[in-house]
């Protein structure tokens, strides 16, 4: 980059499943001034349900993406680092801090049996994503490895350890382990004991404040990254908590919806939202508050199916779909192509219902796909509000699906909320940078993001009141048909 002015910058990193993003954020202009990235894969395997990565891959990617972002910059201007990471992943270390086996990722489902068993033991529904289920799997299937484990970390914690030498966790990411007592923000020793008596000793201490550095950059790592040694490293957090910051969701009730391969919706709450059915994940956020979250497995993929079937592009299909009425003339698309986790129907499949002669036209099916994916999220969101969430009237929409103008309007109309669009697509990496900026300047993270909100796109999508009833009817039908077909 040709960035040369002499202001301080911070580095934000996001350790994703498919790659790593780095951003440099200027503390004076409050803008991203440079970016870098590095892609990597999940280790290929023939074992069903397995999804693993070697943690060394992440460190290599940190180097590549950071050097790319720093190109042409006076690196003495970098004054802090923050790290966001994919949640739930299991990194196990031995006595010397060496990695014992590849990390099992959030999307690894080999621990489905263990998840079922722990759900019964602990009295709330755990999905195989949760780290604790992966630990019980390890104890059962690789007991020799399990016996040598001395420390358990999550992906972003492992990167933090490499940067600083410190082994710690913070509550945002730790709330995805299944062994954090979310309300008291302490380790849940009973849940740990359900797996093994020595588990409590394997988890690192929790950092007391989300607004304080956990350590400073080690000289030998600083050399590899071309950065000044001794700069502070923020606590970091899981990617959802960091995306919330990067999308500007700092105030109570601020709600973010992401339309990607999976659909996610999360909101900032001053108190924990606890749901024993496991539909709502009881996460903590990166500011000391809470971030109830739900995730659907089927989102943008449903639209892809229509595109592949009719060999039209998304733009053509969107134009055709815009001519169809809300509610799709009574056609309901239950979008559960991959099975579903919200609700927990792993055995479910996609279903098209209410078809009449002439209904199999591309525009109608494309709109039904958009509405099905949206109603799936709305159904979960209603559960969040029923459990006590008080959302703000504004919905921040991110992810690939947010680029579709019709989808934005369907979301506004179905949720009856104003839709706004954060301008920065790499919201998790930006969130990590914002956290680092807060730590460096000595302001609380929530205050910093409130004071310097990340920019929104100018376009605001207002809900159309006239469509409200059509979507209420469509939602009632969507829920009833899904329950008839798939509720056990």
UniProtKB/TrEMBL annotation:
InterPro entries: ATPase_NBD (IPR043129), Carb_kinase_FGGY (IPR000577), Carb_kinase_FGGY_CS (IPR018483), FGGY_C (IPR018485), FGGY_Carb_Kinase (IPR050406), FGGY_N (IPR018484), Xylulokinase (IPR006000). The keyword Transferase applies. GO terms for molecular function: ATP binding; D-xylulokinase activity; glycerol kinase activity. Pathway: Polyol metabolism; glycerol degradation via glycerol kinase pathway; sn-glycerol 3-phosphate from glycerol: step 1/1. SUPFAM superfamilies: Actin-like ATPase domain. Residues 9-246 form the Carbohydrate kinase FGGY N-terminal domain. Residues 256-438 form the Carbohydrate kinase FGGY C-terminal domain. It holds the Pfam family FGGY_N. Signal peptide: none annotated. Keywords: ATP-binding, Carbohydrate metabolism, Kinase, Nucleotide-binding, Transferase, Xylose metabolism. It is an enzyme of class 2 (transferase). Its EC number is 2.7.1.30. The keyword Electron transport does not apply. GO terms for biological process: D-xylose metabolic process; xylulose metabolic process. HAMAP family: XylB. Belongs to the FGGY kinase family. NCBIfam families: XylB. This is glycerol kinase. It comes from Astrephomene gubernaculifera.
């Amino acid at each position: 980059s040709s960035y040369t002015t002499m202001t301080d910058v911070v580095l934000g990193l996001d350790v994703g499943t498919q790659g790593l993003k780095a951003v440099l954020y200027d503390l004076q202009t409050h803008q991203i001034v440079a970016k870098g990235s590095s892609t990597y894969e999940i280790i290929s395997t023939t074992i069903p349900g397995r999804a693993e990565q070697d943690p060394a891959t992440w460190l290599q990617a940190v180097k590549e993406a950071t050097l790319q972002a720093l190109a042409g910059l006076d690196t003495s201007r970098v004054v802090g680092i923050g790290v966001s990471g994919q949640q739930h992943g299991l990194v196990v270390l031995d006595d010397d801090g060496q990695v014992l086996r590849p990390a099992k990722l959030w999307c690894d489902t080999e621990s489905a049996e263990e998840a079922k068993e722990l759900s019964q033991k602990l009295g709330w529904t755990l999905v195989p994503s949760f780290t604790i289920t992966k630990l019980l799997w390890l104890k059962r299937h690789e007991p020799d490895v399990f016996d040598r484990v001395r420390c358990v970390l999550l992906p972003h914690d492992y990167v933090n350890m490499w940067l600083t030498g410190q082994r710690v966790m913070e509550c945002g990411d730790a709330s995805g382990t299944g062994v954090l007592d979310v309300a008291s923000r302490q380790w849940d020793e009973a849940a740990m004991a359900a797996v093994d008596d020595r588990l409590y000793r394997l988890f690192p201490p929790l950092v007391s404040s989300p607004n304080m550095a956990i350590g400073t950059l080690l000289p030998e790592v600083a050399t590899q990254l071309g950065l000044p040694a001794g700069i502070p490293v923020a606590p970091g957090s899981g990617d959802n908590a960091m995306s919330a910051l990067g999308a500007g969701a700092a105030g109570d009730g601020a709600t973010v919806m992401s339309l990607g391969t999976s659909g996610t919706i999360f909101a900032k709450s001053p108190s924990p939202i606890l749901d024993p059915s496991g539909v709502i994940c009881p996460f903590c956020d990166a500011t000391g508050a809470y971030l109830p979250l739900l995730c659907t497995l089927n989102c943008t993929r449903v639209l892809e199916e229509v595109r592949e079937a009719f060999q039209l592009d998304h733009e053509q299909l969107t134009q055709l779909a815009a001519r169809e009425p809300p509610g799709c003339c009574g056609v309901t698309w239950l979008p559960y192509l991959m099975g579903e986790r919200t609700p927990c129907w792993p055995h479910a499949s996609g279903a098209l219902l209410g078809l009449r002669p002439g209904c199999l036209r591309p525009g109608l099916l494309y709109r039904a796909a958009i509405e099905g994916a949206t109603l799936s999220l709305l159904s979960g969101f209603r559960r969040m509000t029923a459990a006590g969430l008080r959302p703000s009237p504004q919905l921040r929409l991110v992810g690939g699906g947010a680029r579709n103008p019709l989808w934005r309007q369907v979301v506004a109309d179905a949720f009856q909320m104003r839709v706004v669009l954060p301008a920065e697509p790499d919201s998790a990496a930006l969130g990590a940078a914002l956290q680092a900026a807060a730590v460096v300047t000595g302001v609380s993270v929530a205050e910093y993001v409130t004071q310097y909100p990340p920019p929104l796109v100018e376009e605001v999508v207002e809900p159309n009141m006239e469509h409200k009833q059509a979507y209420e009817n469509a939602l009632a039908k969507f829920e009833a048909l899904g329950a008839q077909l798939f509720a056990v």
